[in-house]
Amino acid sequence: EDQVTQSPEALRLQEGESSSLNCSYTVSGLRGLFWYRQDPGKGPEFLFTLYSAGEEKEKERLKATLTKKESFLHITAPKPEDSATYLCARLNAGKSTFGDGTTLTVKP
Amino acid sequence: EAGVAQSPRYKIIEKRQSVAFWCNPISGHATLYWYQQILGQGPKLLIQFQNNGVVDDSQLPKDRFSAERLKGVDSTLKIQPAKLEDSAVYLCASSLRLSDQETQYFGPGTRLLVL
């Protein structure tokens, strides 16, 4: 069974201070790796899907990358509105396993 | 395009009472999921349906939880009787089909507090 681990649990940044979030998993293989953003009191909002090692996707200040054993979510010059919990998930035979998320706080 | 709808948004009950949650997936989505999210944790899959059939319910506490998806569209999740540890957010998600590469889209969730 796949185990998904996210680090760090919490991250506090100053506005404009770039950083990366990590998502690692135990079962390698070609399957979907998903990143979601979750704001307090709301359901997860889809950000990216990555399928194969070496793949990268970008959206505004966010860039997701994938290796065989982990994925990174890079945040460039973050703004306070990027504050949220970022979740990653893997699918195996349609069954999803989520990490516990990284809570990002961006101070102005 | 309308998203995944859930109701109610909030529910407060006492332990040993019953509660039911409703979900309407995105139109045309064949696969529907129910998750439980405890504060500070990621969503945990409870049950998934493909049309009106159960694909996986291995993590559903079947002694107290039940779910159905009649006619392959709307779904209800029921807890009877509720325990204190059932306090959580119950999320419904849907995807176009059952696939390891298919994106799941989530509803806003139902926040349950069991006293």
Task: Map the helices and strands.
The complex is a heterodimer of chains A (108) and B (115).
Chain A lengths: L3 E4 L2 E5 L4 E7 L7 E6 L6 E6 L5 E4 L2 E5 L3 E6 L8 E9 L2 E4 L3 E6 L1
Parallel strand pairs in A: 2-11
Antiparallel strand pairs in A: 1-3, 3-8, 4-5, 4-9, 6-7, 7-8, 9-10, 9-11
Chain B lengths: L4 E3 L2 E4 L5 E6 L6 E7 L6 E7 L2 E4 L8 E4 L6 E5 L8 E8 L9 E2 L3 E5 L1
Parallel strand pairs in B: 2-11
Antiparallel strand pairs in B: 1-3, 3-8, 4-5, 4-9, 5-6, 7-8, 9-10, 9-11
Structural class of chain B: mainly beta
Radius of gyration of chain A: 13 Å
What is the chain-wise order of helices and strands of chain B?
Answer: EEEEEEEEEEE
According to CATH, the fold-level topology of chain A is Immunoglobulin-like
Helix count of chain A, per DSSP? 0
Structural class of chain A: mainly beta
- What's the CATH topology name of chain B? Immunoglobulin-like
Mean of pLDDT of chain B = 94
* Share of residues in strands of chain B: over 45%
What kind of sheet is the major sheet of chain B?
7 strands, mixed
Spell the H/E element sequence of chain A.
EEEEEEEEEEE
Our count of helices of chain B gives 0
Which CATH first-tier class of chain B would you pick?
Answer: Mainly Beta
Verbal overview:
The complex is a heterodimer of chains A (108) and B (115). Chain A has a single domain (4-107), classed as Immunoglobulins (Immunoglobulin-like, Sandwich). Chain A is globular. In chain A, strands 2, 4, 5, 9, 10 and 11 form a six-stranded mixed β-sheet that branches. A five-stranded antiparallel β-sheet of chain A has the order 1-3-8-7-6, with no helix packed on it. The model of chain A has no long low-confidence stretch (mean pLDDT 92). Chain A is built from no helices and eleven strands. In chain A, 0% of the residues lie in helices and 57% in strands. With 108 residues, chain A is mainly beta. Chain A has strands at 4-7, 10-14, 19-25, 33-38, 45-50, 56-59, 62-66, 70-75, 84-92, 95-98, 102-107. Chain B is mainly beta. Chain B has a single domain (1-9, 23-95), classed as Immunoglobulin-like. Chain B is built from no helices and eleven strands. Chain B has strands at residues 5-7, 10-13, 19-24, 31-37, 44-50, 53-56, 65-68, 75-79, 88-95, 105-106, 110-114. In chain B, strands 2, 4, 5, 6, 9, 10 and 11 form a seven-stranded mixed β-sheet that branches. In chain B, strands 1-3-8-7 form a four-stranded antiparallel β-sheet, with no helix packed on it. In chain B, β5 (44-50) and β6 (53-56) form a beta hairpin. Chain B is globular and about 40 Å long. The chains are: A mainly beta (108), B mainly beta (115). Chain A binds chain B through residues 4, 6, 31-32, 34, 36, 41-46, 49, 51, 87, 89, 91-101, and chain B through 4, 31, 33, 40-45, 48, 55-56, 91, 93, 98-109, 111.
